[in-house]
Specification:
The structure holds two protein chains of two kinds.
Chain A (H helix, E strand, L loop, with lengths): L4 E3 L2 E4 L5 E6 L6 E7 L6 E7 L2 E4 L8 E4 L6 E5 L8 E8 L9 E2 L3 E5 L1
Parallel strand pairs in A: 2-11
Antiparallel strand pairs in A: 1-3, 3-8, 4-5, 4-9, 5-6, 7-8, 9-10, 9-11
Chain B lengths: L2 E3 L4 E5 L4 E3 L2 E3 L5 E8 L6 E7 L6 E3 L2 E6 L4 E6 L8 E9 L8 E2 L3 E6 L1
Parallel strand pairs in B: 2-12
Antiparallel strand pairs in B: 1-4, 3-9, 5-6, 5-10, 7-8, 8-9, 10-11, 10-12
The chains are: A mainly beta, B mainly beta.
């Protein structure tokens, strides 16, 4: 079974530029998450989708971050404009459903460096 | 609000030693789930175990074992006879069982270095 796919693996941009990350979850997984992991810290949830609807985006900096999950499968996360403090690894994860405590499976992440 | 604390930021052991990684959590919910993930240098988070709040039985899987104690809000992870391949960052995480979803709250992680 294929895992969670993310691209690109690495991205370097200048501050104030825009960037987008892509995620393809495990087939059949209804729930998709985007986490931000700053170096030396644990991942922090940015947004959670159930199919193509947003379940939780309370920690998403909406002035610069946006995410969508069209057709309830693939998802993109965008940052516009990027700041230096956005340098982090952006992890996408998916799970079968919500409210069941099922484990989430993570992709390898996209390492973003903002210079 | 939920919180997970991993007080040990870094542990260094010599191969074949046993090592315990501590995890303490806070939650107001009576139903919740606890997880451990491994993050090797390659970066992906590898799921190790999930435990629900009603199951306090300890679990053993090969060289890995987990000790869940609700009385102390702890979910500790022990690696027996550690190996160099166990070197990684280990995260403990908590998920509350509510209809809003099962987002994970992670601890800060413990970096384990196993030296040959």
């Amino acid at each position: 079974e294929a895992g969670v796919a993310q691209s690109p693996r690495y991205k370097i941009i200048e501050k104030r530029q825009s960037v987008a990350f892509w995620c393809n979850p495990i087939s059949g997984h209804a729930t998709l998450y985007w986490y931000q992991q700053i170096l030396g810290q644990g991942p922090k949830l940015l947004i959670q989708f159930q199919n193509n609807g947003v379940v939780d985006d309370s920690q998403l900096p909406k002035d610069r971050f946006s995410a969508e999950r069209l057709k309830g499968v693939d998802s993109t996360l965008k940052i516009q404009p990027a700041k230096l403090e956005d340098s982090a690894v952006y992890l996408c994860a998916s799970s079968l459903g919500t409210g069941t405590g099922v484990g989430a499976f993570f992709g390898q992440g996209t390492r973003l460096t903002v210079v | 609000a939920q919180k997970v604390t991993q007080a040990q930021t870094e542990i260094s052991v010599v191969e074949k030693e046993d090592v315990t990684l501590d995890c303490v959590y806070e939650t107001r919910d009576t139903t919740y789930y606890l997880f451990w993930y491994k993050q090797p240098p390659s970066g992906e988070l590898v799921f190790l175990i999930r435990r629900n709040s009603f199951d306090e039985q300890n679990e053993i899987s090969g060289r890995y074992s987990w000790n869940f104690q609700k009385s102390t809000s702890s979910f500790n992870f022990t690696i027996t006879a550690s190996q160099v391949v166990d070197s990684a960052v280990y995260f403990c995480a908590l998920s509350e069982d509510n209809n809003a979803g099962n987002m994970l709250t992670f601890g800060g992680g413990t970096r384990l270095m196993v030296k040959p």
